[in-house]
Design brief:
lipopolysaccharide transport protein A fold, single chain, about 55% strand, 4 helices, about 5% helix, disordered N terminus, rod-shaped, about 900 residues
Amino acid sequence: MLAGAAVLLLVVLVGFLSYGRYKAAKTWQNLMKHAGVHITHETDGFTYSQSLQGRTAFTLHAAKAIQHEDDKWSLHDVVVTLYSKTTTGVDHIYASDIEYDNKTGVASVLGEVNMDLQAPGALAAGGAHLQHPAVGTPVAAKPAVRGDAKKAAVDNDHIIHVRTSGLVYVRKLAVAATDQEVEFRYAGMQCVAKGAEFDSGESFLHLLANVVLTGDVNGAPMTVHAVKADLDRQSNTVALVQPVAESQGRTAKAASALIHLRNDGSVERGEAGGGVAVDAGTRHITAAAFAGTFNADSLPQTSKLTGGVVVTDTDAARPLRAQASEMDATFNALGNPVSVLAIDGAQVAFTDRKPGTPDLAREIRGDRVLSTFKPEFRAGARKAISRVSEIHAMGSAMVRGDSLVTAADSHGTAHAPELKSTQMSADDLRAEFDPAAQSSELKQVLGVGRTRLEQDAPGGAKQTSSADSTEIEFAMRPSGKSGQSGSGLDDNLQISSATQSGHVLIHSRAAVKAGAKAPEPDSDASAMRAVYEGATQKLTLTGAARFTQGETSLTATSITLDQPTGDADAVGSVLATMASAPGTGAAKTTAAGAAKPVGATAMTHVSADRAHLVHAAQTAEFRGTDAHPARLWQGASQVQAATLFFDQKRRSLAARPAVAGGLVHAVFASDSQAPGKDSQTSGKGVTANCEAKHATGAGSSAGQVVGVTSAAMEYDDIAREATFTGGVRMDGTRGQARSQRGVVFLSTAKATGSVAGASTTVAADSGAGQPSPFGGTVREIVLSGDVWVSQPGRTGTGEQLVYTAADASYVFTGTPAKPPHMVDAQQGNVTGATLVFHSGACASDSTIVVTGAPAAAGSAKAPHGRVRTETEVKQNGTEVRQ
């Protein structure tokens, strides 16, 4: 723009001066043609007029005219008045002494010559409106200072004043020239050159050396220097050699410039080459060439910088570098910029520096970068203010910026601000600004096509996301609260909202907390849409939403993540998968160098309608309804309830119905073990084999499944026990039972692995991981309160029933007032202080062992001895004693 303004001033001045010089020289030529025809002697007050087609063309008046014998003429105090063919305006030429040699056709002006020339209409209009009326007051033309009253009388606002000396005109060559200083003035502008030459035959004006133009453009003073300047009136061009323009501390220069004029003298277009350079304070612009077009008022309409455009700024508070192969600009009718397009490798990078704070780096780049401006007229302003309204980067586009964040420690103490770097890339990036703000503030960034967003925060925190499109809205600051760096961008951008759509993938790494033994595992999220709200700092994933951290994953229709707290809410078709960490036994080293327990990891799955996870408390709540309960399962074991509540710190699980009368359902499936090959012989072989099984417990719990229904369940993973209350019903492979309360004790799960190739068996424990409600097998079941049990061929009642899976034994107890009672198809009615029986395929499994007798009411004395009852029953029509 500076280069365009410099060329504009140069073109306007040269156009005015060239026209005036052309007109004066042409008149002088016509004057000399007639000088030797009518003057024959010395005359005082000599006047000569020439008429063409009945209209006076010019009048020559001299105080004295002398004809010499050698056919030479001398004219003193000459005034030539030239009349326009189309207007009422007149031009004047003043000279003290003129000598003309009629033989050689050479005329010489002795001393100074002055010209007052009427500017053409287009030039006059342009000169009178060097400042736009909406911006400032027009610059009034200033007449040249003269001592002659006749000369001053013709001064007005539309006169071109020319002054020189040593002027020589050669009629045969139709060339007028001088080696003295030539001065032109018009509408407050002035041009001075050392020597001039005008070829009337070729209509070519040369300003030979040391060309200096001064004046105001839009109220700003400007000076233009050139080694030489040439005007070709036939092609209407002005050529400048090494032009240099200076205005308000700005300098623009080039090796050469070529200006194209319209027939009315206004600037049509211009080019500069051989290395264009513009300096404005600490800013420096270079390019190989410049080209621009102008309107009828000689105001810029387009400009083009080509050949490796580079913009640098060494300002200590805000250093900048921008580059592109080409930069194209367009302007409105008032000459205000409308758009600037940077092409091929466009890049702008700058740094905001303030004392006491870290440097903030900003950058934008792309194959093409289009900046759009909005001119704004403000009350009291001398000129329009053009503010950026949009920046559009196309092709491998990227925008990056730093912001300051203030972190607080666990005690709430705020630390010094630290840098957060945000980078966004896409096939197409569009940034919109609010040009009405005090300084243009960023409102929105929209990325389309393979968008990628990276954020690096203090403490090693990092988040990377990708999507088909990304839209970021920035918070608008109240009036007067904008950044004060003068950058046109807010010093500390605050995101109001961010939306990513289409195949969203997010990877997050948490900051390392002070004193933490190990960093939190990275997390990954995916969805079809992700929305971040800056006010709440919550990220909502919708459309096949999935969140994974470590060995825990969560999928749902919608997942909302609270970024400051790490809490999560999931809604709709929720499915969570949690890994129960193996115990602290043998371990192996992973590729990353971290120790990892050996053995297979048991996976726990949960499905629900909704879920709420609290990161700090390490709790997770899954909700459904009594009709469609939340469901947890691990292998074949499971629990169903309207609400499932995990407490990782306490390593507990609670299951509750939604309303009174609702139920909790649980299934415990013991690990299946293939039984050894049993002897199928009769007699002692069978009996010995069954006794061996009872002694060792081998195969006693293999494949057993226990279903439990109750009003509530509490699971303690440390004690490995599940407690059921509010009325309990159990259904298993060996019968059914009911009671007021039930406790299921689980054994430690076994997992196998290898270390250095050696086979190892380790105990799996839930460790610090999620609770593992159903890992391992059922070790023991204790039912209490109004116990009722039913097995094939027998039923019983009592106050407590203890089942031990190791030997498939049952211990039935009661109270003295209500001892355990068993009705057995083989044993009949059996009552005692303790009833012990088994369930299985062996003959001994039908035995009921009765221990002691019921104690007397109120007696604390325990029964003595052991009682064994036998009952005679018929089997296949034969009485058998057992």
